Amino acid sequence: MAVTRRKKRSEPAGTRWRFYTAVFLLFGVFSVLIARAAYIQVISPDAFSLQGDMRSLRSASVAVERGTIVDRNGRELAVSVPVETVWADPKRIAEKDALADERRWQALAETFRMNRNELVSKVDDESKRFVYLQRKVTPSEADYVKQLKIPGVYLKTESRRYYPTGEISAHLIGLTDIDGAGQEGLELLYDEHLTGTPGKRVYRKDAQGRVVEEISQTDAQQPKQLTLSIDQRVQATAYTELKKAVRYNQATSGSAVVLNVETGEVLAMVNSPSFNPNNRAELQSFRMRNRAVTDSYEPGSTMKPLVILSALENGRHKAGDSIDTSPGWLRIGGRRVSDPRNYGELSLTEVLKHSSNVGVTKIALDLGIEPLLQTYADAGFGNDTGIALLGESIGILGDRRRWSEFEIATLSYGYGLSATTLQLANAYNIIANGGLKRPLTIFRQESPLPAEQVFNPDNTRAVMHMMEEVVRDGTAKAAQVPGYRVAGKTGTTRKTKTGGGYGDEYVALFAGIAPVSDPKIVVVVTINEPGTDDYYGGTAAAPVFSKIVSQTMRLLNVAPDNIEDTRVRAAGFGGDE
Predict the structure, then answer these.
(1) Half-sphere exposure for 420 (CA within 13 Å, toward CB)
(2) Which of 23, 92, 179, 363 is deepest in the core (most CB within 10 A)?
């Protein structure tokens, strides 16, 4: 029997080693991949997710235009209009070698009134993808840029603030910067109100630029409109007359305010000199100040009606009383208070007609400092008017324990305190409104704001009739308005010098009410530093009041209340105070 032996196969040398090596390598590779995936997905997913989003996610802003500002009748005072902005992609310019065409870049530089090298320097950094070349160009400039067809130079639509009334309402409305943010006036004060919130859309695109997923969308919040109490017709009238008066009187500046008696709304607030907010090339800081609320002066004789009102309120005098002003001067504490001449015995009305310093001094000394200061405070002096405009001054109203008799005397004829044009208008508005004091407002009101009764209506009416005589036959004849009964008071004050004391510069003022039978408006005019010999309130400021009131009565359709007086008053200047 044959025995078959199976020959044992022998494995090639190294086979098992190679097998284990391969298994180990595969296991290692898979381990690295798993570890990498875990790192990406679990430990640090944000960075890679961000990179992916940067390649596929896009966001688009839904722009909103700045809110408009309109007057009480809906006339636009500030609007946003679409304009073109020129920008460039330096990387695209480099790729197309666009800088090689020097003629086109020279033409573009001349369009922007720039040096060509300066323009080219903006686009010579290839790492940038966006630079502004010129913001908010004119339509003709935008068309020319299109015609040049420079590779890498593009146009984008933005909005620009435009002010249809120009310099007429500039101090009140203010202006914005090139990015549309408020810089002055109401544009700054109500910047957030006018700005709104842009909307935003986030979506994902594929490699071919197609939208494959909408991620989120936030609706835009539209800005709000400001509706002012200003009547642009009255505003334009006041500005025109004030500007002419400042030029005629060779004055440094001037201000005028027109108030609605019943509501406390500001119908006009103007200053001269002014500025054009549509032309930023020649902006000067001294032209941009809203002097009607920022600049305060000693109000002079315009305070005398309040002295008489205080005497009536405190029972020290009655409307029919008289004051002996002989011999036309007083000596108080070594100082002299005097009138231009000896007026003798004067009624309270005649004290105002002749603007007698001696008369009001005697009334104030009899009254005492506390009642007088209280009346001034009740009339709004030493406090804000409630209008809440930027830079509003509260003036100066002293609050001391001791007052000399001479200080009381000067206080009675408007020295030793200071007030703005708006504050003075507020005080006369209280008189015109029967002693009712309400906050002033620059916004249109559907109904009057709450008011406080600070003076007796009978006393304010009596004082208003006294002031009517001032216009009829006193120091303010130039303030007369044909067909209307008006009341008011002049004021002329010397300005203090920097080192103390008074200099040779004056402020001419007039504050008045119209019509007396049913007061509708209060107008205050301030002419600062007249350069002529006619620097009195009755000659420099009163004629401006007359012209503003005459045109405003027609614009507001207020019926005449003095038809008998139809004389046409020739433009002239005269009188003293």
Answers:
(1) 24
(2) 363
**Strand pairing partners for 176?**
182
Tokens coding 300 = 């002079």
**Whole-angstrom distance, CA of residue 367 vs CA of residue 338:** 19
Query: What integer is the mean pLDDT of 514-535?
Result: 96
Task: Enumerate the β-bridge partners of residue 506.
Answer: 494
Which is catalytic among the residues 169, 229, 301, 356? 301
Q: Are 186 and 163 in contact (CB under 8 A)?
A: no
- In 10 A of CB 444, how many CB atoms? 18
Residues 148-162 pLDDT 10s: 888 989 898 888 899
Residue 169 known to be catalytic: no
Confirm if 287 and 280 have CB atoms less than 8 A apart.
no
pLDDT tens digit sequence for 43-90:
666 655 655 555 555 565 656 788 999 999 999 999 998 888 898 888
Q: List Cβ neighbours of 19 (8 Å cut-off, separation of 6 or more).
A: none
- How many alpha carbons lie under 13 Å from residue 510 in its C-beta half-sphere? 35
d(CA 426, CA 381): 9
pTM above 0.90, yes or no: no
Q: What is the mean pLDDT of residues 438-459?
A: 95
